[in-house]
Amino acid sequence: MNQEPNAHCQTWELIPWVVNGTATAAQRERVEAHLRTCADCREEFALQQQFHAAMLARPAVTSDPQPALAQLFARLELQGELAPVETVPRRRHRANAWLAAAVVVQAVGLGLLGAALLHRSGNGSAAPAEAGYRTLSSTAPGRAAAAIRLVAAPDMTLATLRQLLGETGLHIVEANTDNSIFGLASVDAAQTANAEFINAALLRLRAQPGVLLAEPVGDAGRAP
Amino acid sequence: MKSITDELETRNGGEPDADTAERRLLTAVAGGDRIAFERLYLRQHPLLARFIGRHTARRDLVDEIINDTFWVVWRKAAEFRGESKVATWIVGIAYRCMLKALRQNPPAAEQQDEAGLAELAGQESGESEQRELSDWVRRGLDLLSPEQRMTLELAYYLGQSCEEIAAIMNCASGTVKARMFHARLRLRNSLPGLGGEPAPAANSSSVRN
């Protein structure tokens, strides 16, 4: 231990940055030179290497980023930050899975919308003239305005969605063109403007694992 | 004409410089390129998920923080001045989003989940040494102050340099060095050695400051 004290201190300070590979070549050379003659620093270097390895060895918590990304896109689109796109070219190996998911969501949405329209018209054979594709911003006259916007995960089943709507006392009154965003209102029209009812429904919706986004529309859910 | 994302795609695999690729993606994002944004998101998501996942066991909160981060990235992409790596810039945003989210969602109730996660990690590895290392990390990090822990994680988990950590945590390089110094001392004084060996001595004498 006849090392120059300054070199010892400098080495001790540099060790983590040599261990994580961000030290410069000159710094690394200085550290390596000192380590050859200093047992204390060699021990510290070994300890930090073990700690570094241990941190990296912890298994990663992996998750599929696509649902979260879909949620972010929906958020940006709702806020007008990003224009919705009809078709986005994607890498081929992902296309099939997303296409399948989109078909499922579309089928669920169309089924629910069809059921809602039939129920409202009271006559399955005479669909109202205004029935068709609508955006969230164009509410049909006489139809309940949406109080909640809902984005569900592509793999949410129809049974889960129906159960969720049943529990919350909501039904679908609107959907965007690709049925990825639903506008919900209370089955009991008097409750749609009830902030307490809407907030309770939002809490229940957000607690459901397959719900990517549930947010009030306009002033819905805000206490007067 | 090849788009930026197509060009990056052709370089996939032998990518010589991740930061160069990410700078080009970010430039495209600043121009409103949705596909570049998606590409950047998917590149950064695993790293950010691991980093944020060390501070909360709630997967929904991890995704929420990542989305808050990329919401800022989308809006601020044009303001990136290239003073750091793109990844460092994004980690800096994630760091601030995480602090805010954790303030609003204190992790106190999650301690058991964290321990469970560590146990699971050990089971998954199937090796006692691996389990011991994981346990060592978990208990050791719990002993540090939030700033010391964050410094160590940014350095050892994300491989950030001293200067990059200073930029992410918005402090001086000297502060990063001091936090790292004290973190190491605290770990040396408190943690048992590996493999049943005695704990390393406090050994402050080896640090001649």
Q: How would you summarize what this structure contains?
A:
Chain A: This is Zf-HC2 domain-containing protein. Chain A: Residues 10-42 form the Putative zinc-finger domain. Chain A has 224 residues and is α+β, with helices and mostly antiparallel strands.
The oligomeric state of the chains shown is heterodimer
Low-confidence runs of at least 5 consecutive residues of chain B: 1-14, 109-126, 194-209
Mean pLDDT of chain B: 78
CATH architecture of the largest domain in chain B: Orthogonal Bundle
CATH-assigned homologous superfamily of the largest domain in chain B: RNA polymerase sigma factor, region 2, helix turn helix motif
Count of DSSP H/I helices of chain A: 7
Secondary-structure-based class of chain A equals alpha+beta
Strand order of the largest sheet of chain A: 2-3-1-4
Q: Approximately how much beta-strand content do the residues of chain B carry?
A: under 5%
Globally, the shape of chain B reads globular
Compute the separation of the termini of chain A in Å. Answer: 75 Å
Radius of gyration of chain B: 19 Å
Please tally the β strands of chain A and state the result: 4
Give me the Rg of chain A, rounded: 29 Å
| Total number of distinct structural domains of chain B | 2
**Nearest-integer average pLDDT of chain A:** 76
Helical content class of chain B: 55-70%
List the uncertain runs of chain A: 124-134, 137-141
By DSSP, the count of extended strands of chain B is: 0
How many angstroms separate the termini of chain B? 60 Å
Protein name (chain B): Sigma-70 family RNA polymerase sigma factor
Organism (chain B): Tahibacter harae
Domain RNA polymerase sigma-70 region (chain B): 40-105
Family (chain B): Belongs to the sigma-70 factor family. ECF subfamily.
